[in-house]
Design brief:
Order of helices and strands: HEHEHEHEHEEHHHHHH
Structural class: alpha/beta
Number of helices: 11
Oligomer: single chain
CATH architecture of the largest domain: 3-Layer(aba) Sandwich
CATH superfamily of the largest domain: P-loop containing nucleotide triphosphate hydrolases
Largest sheet: 6 strands, mixed
Shape: elongated
CATH topology of the largest domain: Rossmann fold
Number of strands: 6
Distance between the termini: 17 Å
Radius of gyration: 19 Å
Helix content: 25-40%
CATH class of the largest domain: Alpha Beta
Length: 279
């Protein structure tokens, strides 16, 4: 079986280092993507919540459907987990800081850990939380290497690299690539991931987000035909007017993961995505 997840050495080293410092932390913030809060959970969520208080922050609130995000927040709070949702590029974290104040010792800064899988917005979140541009921000998963500390606004925060479970299944790994949290070329190909995404959106009544943006309906011949129509719409052509399926797949996945096609939520509480219900 081929690789199902991008798990380079710096992730393993970061995981080890974080486990070494967690006993010295007062609380943890776990970032998840609001479009798929269960799919993008850290593989260590349950373990971490038994060790330290955890606050769930749903990033990319602006890319998810608001009523569904509200259901997720209610779900987490109903299970005893404080939860908030943010547009990390615009929102202030006043409510979160109020929540964090519960865990601050009177004699020193609050010691806080920020965890999450690759590319859920940890570095961008950290920049806003400590009030300065102290961490690298980029589009590639796992850009923050190692464990680093940052001080600001009464907080001492330890950052960690994005960590995926080394045994993530093929279908889950592919679905994470739709959100930019895994690399499509590691788990197969861009075309394979794009066809799976077309299938999923079509099966779950979510294709209208694409059709509204690009005026491309689902093709009766199947996802391969739809991908070809997308390629023509996007101008991904090669000699003789044939569609470059790999280039079309890259553009489609990038547009979906960055929210350019519109707001969409992939899962709801009680209906999480997993190997058993993904294409």
């Amino acid at each position: 079986m081929g690789r199902t997840v991008w798990f380079p050495g710096h992730m393993a080293r970061g995981q080890k280092k974080l486990s070494e410092v967690i006993t010295n932390l007062d609380a943890l913030i776990e970032l998840r993507d609001a479009r798929a809060p269960q799919l993008t959970a850290s593989p260590h969520s349950d373990q971490l919540s038994r060790m330290k208080p955890v606050i769930v922050v749903l990033s990319r609130r602006d890319l998810a459907e608001e009523p569904k995000t509200a259901k997720w927040l209610e779900h987490f709070r109903g299970n005893g987990l404080p939860a908030l949702a943010y547009n990390l590029r615009q929102d202030r974290f006043d409510q979160l800081k109020g929540e964090l104040s519960r865990y601050k010792p009177s004699h020193r800064d609050l010691r806080l850990g920020v965890v999450g899988i690759p590319n859920v917005g940890k570095s961008l979140f950290l920049n806003g939380l400590v009030g300065r541009n102290a961490s690298r921000v980029g589009a590639l998963p796992g850009i923050t290497r190692g464990v680093e500390w940052f001080r600001g606004q009464g907080l001492l925060v330890v950052d960690s690299p994005g960590i995926l479970g080394a045994r993530t299944g093929v279908k889950v790994g592919r679905a994470l690539s739709w959100l930019g949290c895994n690399r499509a070329d590691v788990i197969g190909s861009y075309e394979t991931s794009a066809i799976a995404l077309i299938t999923f959106l079509g099966n779950n009544g979510l294709w209208p987000v694409v059709e509204r943006a690009w005026s491309v309906p689902l093709d009766d011949s199947g996802p391969e035909g739809t991908l070809e129509n997308l390629g023509r719409r996007l101008g991904c052509l090669i000699g003789g007017g044939a569609v470059d399926s790999e280039a079309a797949s890259r553009k489609f996945l990038e547009s979906f993961s960055t929210g350019r096609l519109g707001r969409v939520t992939l899962e709801l509480p009680g209906l999480p995505l997993g190997e058993e219900n993904l294409p």
